[in-house]
Structure formats: structure tokens, C-alpha cells
Amino acid sequence: MSEAPAKSYVLKDALCPVCGKKGLTVTETEYCAPNFGKTLLTLLRCTKCDWRRSDVTSLEYHEPRCYKIRVEKPQDLQTRVVRSRTATIEIPELGVKIRPGPIAEAFISNIEGILERIEDKAEIINEQFKSETFFKKLDDAKRGAFAFTLIIKDHSGNSAIISNEPGRVKIRKLSEKELKRLTS
After folding, report:
1. How are beta strands 65-71 and 52-58 bridged, if at all?
2. Which residues contact 145 (CB under 8 A, 6 or more apart)?
3. pLDDT tens digits, residue range 105-114?
4. Which residue, 84, 51, 79, 71, is CA-closest to 141?
5. Are residues 136 and 53 in the same domain?
6. CA-CA distance, 99 to 120, in Å (whole number)?
7. pLDDT one-digit tens code per residue, 111-130
8. Which are the contacts of 115, defined by CB distance < 8 A and separation ≥ 6?
9. Is 150 exposed, middle or buried (0-12, 13-18, 19+ CB in 10 A)?
10. Which domain holds residue 121?
11. How do beta strands 37-46 and 87-91 pair?
């Protein structure tokens, strides 16, 4: 598979959904990503209000899968993570479960980036997460001083945990029971 963009489309001076002014540029690029196949990379950027949104949409579907890795040392935080907009992320030791919603975004990050996203959201809704214990564990996890398990379940099969260390990531097909829970 080639890594070069296959097709690209640009729309300029569209109406921005945030400020309502003309100045939105929409760029869509079809891309053949290793291990995932055809994807659509979308970037929306408004020159008037600086609003941005990016998204990665898989144009192919794969077998529903569960990915699991035990994070035990600081180097593990650099492990690459691809989350499709249909994936659920769990970290049982922190009591974290992130389910996809109607405007869920796909992203490519690393485990450290996922912990930062969790921290950002927890601070926004701190009434629910007003726990010093939670933030202490999260801080320790971000430093690699608190071992935890990262689990990604994706019924579209378009997510992954990609480690340079063979055998670190456990991958299995989702059961029918799990699929029903994820899609209901």
C-alpha cells in the first residue's frame, strides 16, 4: 500500500458553523494508511474565528476487535494509539470508560496523550471527578509511576494499539455479547 495521498479536495470560504462568517476552509484527503487501508483525513479551519476541527474517517471496516496493553513503565506511555470514532476506551484502574458519542472524534495519539485528554475532560467536569485520589493516580500514570491497563474495544475494527515490542498488545475478536453491549 502506498502512503501517498490518493485524492485531495479543498473548499474555501464556506460558512463557519461557529461564527457564521465566510472563511471556513475544508480540506479532505483520501489516504491509504498502513494497517488500516483507505481513510479520509478532514481538516476544517476558519480564518475569521480560528475554530478548527480535524477528523480521520476509515473508509473500510474490519473485524470487531479488542486491544489491550499493560502500561508499566514510562516508555510505555509513548505507545501509539489509533482510536476510531466508534471505539470505547477503558482504564479500569482509574475507573475510566470513554464511550463514543454522536460527534466522537477519531484520533492518532499515544498513551500519554490519552491520559492528557482524560485529565482535560475530568477538569472540565470536575464536580464528577472531584477526587484527589483520582487526580493523584492520573498524575502518577502520566509519569509512568502507576501501572494500568489500556483497553480499546471497537466494533468497526478501525482502532489499534501499536507497540514496537512484539507481544505487548493483546488482540482478540470481540464476542457477540460484547458487540451487543457496545452497539446498544
Report:
1. unpaired
2. none
3. 888 899 999 9
4. 71
5. no
6. 16
7. 999 999 998 887 766 655 56
8. 77, 138, 141, 142
9. buried
10. 65-183
11. unpaired
Place of cell 512484539: 166
- Looking at residue 158, its amino acid is N
Any idea how long the chain is? 184
pLDDT-derived band of residue 166, with 50, 70 and 90 as boundaries?
Answer: confident
Cα dihedral sign for 81, 82, 84, 85?
Answer: positive
Q: Which helix (H) or strand (E) holds 32?
A: strand 22-33
- Grid cell 489499534 — which residue? 160
Distance, C-alpha 51 to centroid of its chain: 20
Burial tier of 153 (Cβ tally within 10 Å: 0-12, 13-18, 19+): buried
The dihedral sign for the CA sequence 112, 151, 37, 182 = negative
Compute the distance between CA of residue 93 and CA of residue 101 in angstroms, rounded to an integer: 23
Same domain, residue pair 44 and 84: no
The pLDDT mean for the chain works out to: 87
**pLDDT of res. 1:** 41
Indicate whether 140 and 49 sit together in one domain: no
Read off the pLDDT of each residue in 5-34 and give the average, rounded to a whole number. 88
